[in-house]
Automatic annotation (TrEMBL), chain A:
PANTHER family, per database record: ABC TRANSPORTER RELATED (PTHR24220:SF685), IMPORT ATP-BINDING PROTEIN (PTHR24220)
SMART domains named among the record's database cross-references: AAA (SM00382)
Domain ABC transporter: start-end pairs: 20-257
Upper lineage: Bacteria, Bacillati, Actinomycetota, Actinomycetes, Micrococcales
CDD domains: ABC_MJ0796_LolCDE_FtsE
Protein name listed in UniProt: ABC transporter ATP-binding protein
Alphabetical UniProt keywords: ATP-binding, Nucleotide-binding, Transport
Entry keyword annotation includes Transport: yes
InterPro entries: AAA+_ATPase, ABC_transporter-like_ATP-bd, ABC_transpr_LolD-like, MacB-like_ATP-bd, P-loop_NTPase
Alphabetized GO MF terms: ATP binding
Annotated source species: Occultella gossypii
Automatic annotation (TrEMBL), chain B:
Superkingdom of origin organism: Bacteria
Location, primary (coarse class): membrane
Name of protein: FtsX-like permease family protein
Transmembrane segments: 12-36, 271-299, 320-349, 369-391, 420-440, 460-490, 511-532, 738-764, 785-812, 832-852
Alphabetized UniProt keyword annotations: Cell membrane, Membrane, Transmembrane, Transmembrane helix
Compartments it resides in: Cell membrane
Family: Belongs to the ABC-4 integral membrane protein family.
Membrane topology: Multi-pass membrane protein
Annotated ABC3 transporter permease C-terminal domain residues: 281-397, 742-858
Cell membrane as UniProt keyword: yes
InterPro entries: ABC3_permease_C, Macrolide_Exporter_MacB
Pfam families in the record: FtsX
Length: 263, 866
């Protein structure tokens, strides 16, 4: 690879008892001259009961990494393990089952079913899996998110922040092993974004959830226990319990390194 | 998951409305057909019940089975259940003497023409006019008023006939009976227990009827009425032991009334079955076309909801669950559509019944919806809907969950390579099969062992399906050509519209595909009808050389009239063509009921000019027979073969002396008039046509006036010149064409709904894009025009492809049936051009609603809409 690490990095130390891990993960789109190497041999362990943020500039491969680790996309080579199960070699049927039982998702936006009410959207994964709703869990999640008075509303009647909180509730209600969030605050104003991120952090701290979030917003990333930096398909550094300023600094350094690299 | 599915329908119900409508129309047609069939069957059963009321019947054993009958409705002359010889009318007296028999009434009936109060013949469409013997205290007929007719100058009328004739008891009127015009008084009104389905029925003195209709003393059967408390089978046993035992050589049989009624019902139901099958063919076409709307609707709905399905997949839904979400919607569409369709079918039948009753044909009872019909209709509608939605549903199921994460839902258009390959292969198979059928039918040696019919069917089917598969492949190029005038004439809208229809060739093609099928059938029927008309008129013009042709609407020119015409001083020739039912047998053919034509041999070359394929018609003078080529081919007979004709009276063995392909001699066998007279014995021949040539120098108009004077009293007889005859035949072809057009119209209407549907949905799908072009300055009217051009292009595309396919298939059909009267291929270019022009109009109409919708979209909201 021959790529030098960003100055802020400490070596990516394996966390104890990771909830998910990837080894020598590569993903190539297309073939031949037009091949795009989205991931170039990534090794990473994501900690259990932690909020991990993955950062990097556009095209760095952060979304691809998350898709592969969540079983939404199949890696070209390498292995992915989630909660003790190797998912990189699973069949589509097994992956479907995995998504049902072990994984929760929060998407950027517009990912509620518009014809269902908030409550119905939240219990949708359980309905799909034909699992009875755990009322206690449901109530806990709802009250944590402050959605109690919005349950009968359709998505169109909710604000962006409310929609995203419903999406968070949907990800959490089935008690997944891990929640993946793809730019969860991408379409929100800063106040709403703060609420959502605060909730994600609380779900980790209070409910013991493991959450992985992809973002390019340093303020969002500052809510994380750990921030992993990606560039050109490889991990180039990480920070633990960073402040927003630390992240900005790291990004700036990363940018400089890239500029030097380019020149 | 069910909730997701149903909510979507509730939220976007309008999008499915036209799909539901398509199912409604198709299912209504199917339901209507079944209900009508059941109702006709009920009606005719009750007619059988009331007209065959005997406890037992005596008749002769059938000499032929009905297996030997040609395809199509059985020849009424042959009777049901095969041809039977007549039995001696005097047997009735013997039967009446048997213990337990109350009455034995011979069945005596024949054709009659009744002149109504307005001076015209009482006829009811194609229904027959019959005169029957009315006995005193006849058990089958309820004498409503008056007395049983006595003597040759009294008749009774059935209540319905009395109504439609406008006559009253005591009135005198004219009837034509057994070829004679007679003045009679109406003395009775009789009624049957059930409606007579339009037949005009008159009653005669039993002796008069016997004299008229059983001049040889033979009747078809004798109805036996038992005394009270004698069972039907006891009655049959009693007759078998006595009458049958006394006449061991007469070939008699006695059957219970129930058996005979069941036999008659069965035979009638077979005919009704033909009608039902015929209608069901059109119903299936309508449903098939409707399936295209459903497929398109679901394809577009799935495309719009790609992201939602990806989300469901990301949340753990299996492909099968997503498939089920889409299919549940299809199920709902199908179920709702077919339920309403079933009700519409009932309404449709009520409407038909009302119309029929206006024409004097009364059908019994309520429209019967049996559980079977209901389940079948719901099943068919739902199944069509499910099958049509299966492909889009599969597409939804295979949505990659990662699509949910992407900002832009990229809908990858699958390559058309497979479609092209499969389509081309099917087309090739179709063309090959069609070629085989044409080759087989035109081959001199028909013993390839191949029948052209099935090959033609396979060929036509494969060509149609192949073209459907290929149409997206050819859409781009064809639409490019079709759009060229619009692009050049209406800038820049033509270009915009062309882009829209060419952007998704699959969708455009399947929208046009529905229209293509309908239009292919319309074009094929148009070409075939034109060919039939041309072929027939060409033959009529060459064959009928007489100055006048005298015909009767009842297909029986009265004998008196024939004589009177021949006796005219100004008439040089009056050649009568007569028909009679006979039993035909020959090498390799067991006795089979058919009709024979008798003609004066001298007619050929004078009033009739008939080309023979082989042999010479002059041999008829030597007692030889002429075969129609269809019979020669079917039975494998050639010149010189010996064939046998048999009637009640006698049996003749004749040598085949000629083979023709004549329109005038359209029966299997034609013989000389002397031979026919020999076969018929004392019974009169049934004259179907008289060719009249005037003496040289007599003006045609004068001859015409003289003829009219003779035939005027017979009411239903006409004298036509060759031109008038040609027009009459052309009219008949046109009438048949109108019925088929009407039946195809529903498919075309559904296809047009399909265009409305696709346009409306694509307007919804393109909301954002429409907002954009409106924002950069496209006016409302311009937008509407663009959509109208899209619609017109789609309609013309479907029509042009359909017409090309239809004309090609019709040409093949014409070649295959060249021997059966379609000797000329006529392509009515003006009508085909009119069809294409009409489709452009249809395109404009289809665009109205979608265009209005699109132009009302608020620009800002359209852009903001995700």
């Amino acid at each position: 690879m021959g790529r030098h690490a960003a100055p802020v990095s400490t070596s990516p130390e394996p966390a104890d008892d990771p909830i998910a891990s990837a080894r020598a993960l590569t993903k190539v789109y297309g073939a031949g001259a037009t091949a795009v190497h989205a991931l170039r041999g990534v090794d990473v362990d994501l900690g259990r009961g932690r909020l991990t943020a993955i950062m990097g500039p556009s095209g760095s491969g952060k979304s691809t990494l998350m898709h592969c680790m969540a079983g939404l996309d199949t890696p070209t080579s390498g292995t992915v393990e989630v909660d003790g199960q190797v998912i990189s070699s699973m069949s589509q049927r097994q992956l479907t089952n995995l998504r049902r039982t072990r994984i929760g998702f929060v998407f950027q936006a517009y990912n509620l079913v518009p014809t269902l009410t908030a409550a119905e959207n939240i219990t949708l994964p359980l309905d799909i899996a034909r699992t009875p709703v755990d009322r206690e869990r449901f109530d806990t999640v709802i009250s944590t998110l402050g959605l109690g008075d919005r349950l009968t509303h359709r998505p169109a009647e909710l604000s962006g922040g409310q929609q995203q909180r419903v999406a968070c509730a949907r990800a959490l209600v089935a008690k997944p092993s891990i929640v993946f969030a793809d730019e969860p605050t991408g379409n929100l104003d800063s106040k709403a974004a703060g609420e959502v991120l605060g909730f994600l952090r609380r779900s980790v701290d209070d409910l013991g959830q493991s959450v992985v979030m992809v973002t390019h917003d340093p303020r969002s990333a500052s809510y994380a226990h750990r921030v992993i930096f990606l560039a050109d398909g490889a991990i180039v550094g990480e920070l633990h319990d960073p402040a927003e300023a630390d992240i900005l600094e790291a990004l700036a350094a990363l940018g400089e390194a890239r500029e030097q690299d380019a020149s | 998951m069910l909730r997701v599915s149903l909510r979507e329908i509730r939220a976007h119900g309008v999008r499915f409305a036209l799909s539901v409508l398509a199912v409604i129309l198709g299912v209504a047609f199917v339901a209507g057909t079944f209900i009508l069939r059941a109702m006709l069957s009920d009606t005719f059963d009750s007619i059988v019940e009331s007209s065959l009321q005997g406890d037992a019947y005596l008749r002769s054993v059938a000499t032929t089975s009905d297996d030997g009958l040609p395809d199509g409705p059985p020849d009424p002359g042959a009777g049901f259940g095969g041809a039977r010889d007549g039995i001696d009318i005097t047997l009735a007296d013997e039967v009446a003497a048997v213990d337990g028999v109350a009455r034995a009434l011979p069945d005596v009936q024949g054709p009659i023409v009744i002149v109504g109060a307005d001076g015209t013949a009482v006829v009811n469409g194609q229904a027959p006019s019959l005169a029957l013997a009315l006995h005193t205290d006849d058990p089958a007929v309820d004498l409503v008023a008056g007395e049983v007719p006595v003597g040759p100058n009294e008749i009774g009328l059935e209540s319905g006939a009395l109504d439609s004739s406008g006559l009253a008891l005591g009135d005198t009127t004219t009837v034509v009976l057994g070829g004679e015009v007679r003045e009679v008084t109406v003395v009775a009104e009789g009624a049957y227990a059930s409606p007579t389905s339009g037949a005009t029925l008159a009653f005669l003195d039993a002796d008069v009827a016997a004299e008229l209709f059983a001049p040889d003393g033979l009747v078809n059967s004798i109805a036996v009425y038992g005394e009270d408390a004698v069972s039907q089978s006891d009655l049959v046993d009693a007759i078998t032991e006595t009458v049958l035992a006394d006449h061991p050589d007469a070939n008699l049989e006695a059957r219970t009334g129930d058996d005979v009624r069941a036999e008659a019902s069965e035979a009638i139901n077979e005919i009704i079955g033909f009608i039902g099958t015929f209608l069901l063919v059109f119903a299936s076409i309508a449903l098939f076309v409707g399936a295209f709307i459903i497929t398109n609707t679901f394809a577009m709905s799935v495309r719009q909801r790609q992201r939602e399905y990806a989300l469901l997949r990301a949340l753990g839904a299996s492909p099968a669950q997503v498939f089920a979400v889409v299919l549940t919607q299809a199920f709902a569409v199908g179920l709702v559509g077919s339920a309403i369709g079933l009700l519409s079918g009932v309404a449709l039948v009520d409407l038909i019944r009302w119309i029929l009753s206006r024409f004097g044909m009364n059908l019994t009872g309520e429209a019967p919806v049996t559980a079977f019909t209901a389940v079948l209709c719901l099943g068919i509608g739902t199944a069509v809907s499910l099958v049509a939605a299966a492909v889009p549903a599969r597409r939804a199921a295979l949505t990659a969950p990662v699509e949910a994460m992407r900002d832009d839902v990229t809908v990858t258009e699958k390559s058309l390579r497979w479609r092209a390959l499969v389509g081309a292969l099917l087309l090739l198979i179709g063309v090959a099969a069609t070629y085989v059928s044409v080759a087989v039918s035109t081959d001199e040696d028909p013993y390839w062992g191949l029948e052209p019919g099935p090959w033609l069917g396979i060929g036509a089917g494969a060509v149609l399906v192949g073209m459907l598969a290929l149409s997206p492949v050819i859409a781009r190029a064809t639409l490019g050509v079709l759009a060229a005038p619009f692009v050049a004439a209406i800038k820049p809208l033509g270009r915009l519209a062309r882009g829209n229809v060419m952007r998704n060739p699959r969708r455009t093609a399947s929208t046009a595909g529905a229209l293509m099928i309908g239009m292919a059938l319309v074009a094929a029927c148009t070409v075939l009808a034109a060919s039939a008309r041309e072929s027939t008129t060409a033959i009529v013009e060459t064959e009928y050389r007489a100055d006048f042709v005298v015909l009767s609407a009842t297909n029986a020119v009265p004998a008196e009239a024939v004589t009177a015409i021949a006796d005219l001083d100004d008439v040089a020739r009056a050649d009568a063509l007569s028909t009679a039912p006979v039993e035909l047998s020959g090498p390799g053919l067991d006795p089979t009921a058919t009709t024979v034509i008798g003609a004066p041999p001298t007619a050929f070359g004078t009033t009739l000019e008939i080309e023979t394929l082989e042999g010479d018609l002059a041999t008829l003078a030597d007692g030889e027979a002429a075969l129609h080529t269809s019979a020669a081919l079917e039975y494998g007979w050639q010149i010189g073969d010996e064939i046998t004709l048999r009637t009640d009276v006698t049996e003749l063995t004749l040598t085949v002396g000629a083979i023709t392909n004549s329109q005038a001699l359209n029966a299997d066998v034609t013989i000389g008039e002397d031979q026919l007279a020999e076969l018929l014995g004392p019974a009169p021949a049934n004259v179907v046509m008289v060719g009249v040539d005037g003496v040289d120098g007599v003006p045609l108009t004068e001859l015409g006036d003289q003829l009219d004077a003779i035939i005027e009293p017979y009411v239903v007889v006409t004298a036509l010149t060759a031109d008038e005859l040609v027009n009459q035949i052309a009219d008949r072809v046109n009438q048949a064409l109108v019925i088929i057009y009407a039946l195809l119209a529903l498919s075309v209407v559904i296809a047009v709904l399909g265009i409305v549907n696709t346009l409306a949905l694509s307007v919804i799908e393109r909301t954002r894009e429409i907002g954009l072009i409106r924002a950069v300055g496209l006016g409302r009217l311009q937008l509407s025009v663009t959509i109208v051009i899209e619609s017109v292009l789609t309609a013309i595309f479907g029509t042009v492809v359909g017409v090309v396919v239809g004309v090609a298939l019709a040409a093949a059909v014409r070649s295959v049936f060249a021997d059966q009267g379609l000797s000329v291929l006529a392509i009515p270019w003006d009508q085909l051009v009119a069809i294409v022009a009409l489709s452009a109009v249809v395109g404009v109409l289809a665009a109205v609603w979608p265009a209005i919708r699109a132009s009302r979209l608020p620009v800002l909201e359209a852009i903001a809409q995700e």
